[in-house]
Amino acid sequence: MNQTLMPESIDKFRQIIYQHYAEHRREMPWRVSRDPYHILVSEIMLQQTQVGRVLAKYELFISTFPDFDSVCKAPLQEILGVWQGLGYNRRAIALQKICRLVVTEYGGVLPSSAETLQTFPGIGPATAGAICAFAFNQPTVFIETNIRRVFIHFFFPNKKRIKDKEILPLVERTLDTGSPRRWYHALMDYGAMLKNEKHNPNRRSAHYNRQAPFQGSNREIRGLILKTLLGKPELPEGELIRAVGKNPKRVRPIIAQLTKEGFLVRKGDLIRISA
Q: Both ends of the chain: CA-CA distance in Å?
């Protein structure tokens, strides 16, 4: 599809996307909710995480922590216990910080401004745009991995190293401003199909980075440390390192980093998850 967008080209593009959506719509629990808290939780969970893994955790999290206030009051250990399996545990801390900001600074109401949301921990332009589109049906303009895949496929079929700044004007011009929530759901579903059925167009993005293997990574060790402390709330450092079962020279600096980030608290030689 040519980048020179005439009204008829935009109409054709939308028809293709909406036709696929009508026939292959993915059902997800957060899509039927209009509760901004539910949308916030889903969007934080979906950062760098496959939909299938989020589906396995989302409803448990919502039932355990049904609102902003419940996340505020919960011990971090309890939040991490439910979060286990999603990875990137920094997001759990960010989510709790966001909920505390909403309760203390915004009267328990999530702001509907993308600019305001971007000042919150762990929320960048894409997450802020998605929250505003899905929670408030605002015609925000943003890119995430599935959206990027669709626009590269249709508008840059023979080009490599495509930058997001080239894609954003096309996202804006083709946006169904009358129904942004439905439009972005449709785009994302089409992008998910492209990943599964065709050569992944995102490999031609200038921002494409293949994720390093989890096995043996620092991410794996971080997860093992937290998982160990969820089972035994407080351990001496040496015992914790032995329980993790990895090279102590790698584990010690990661414990120090987790402490610096606010996940862990050290009292003498004893280490525990933060309250």
A: 54
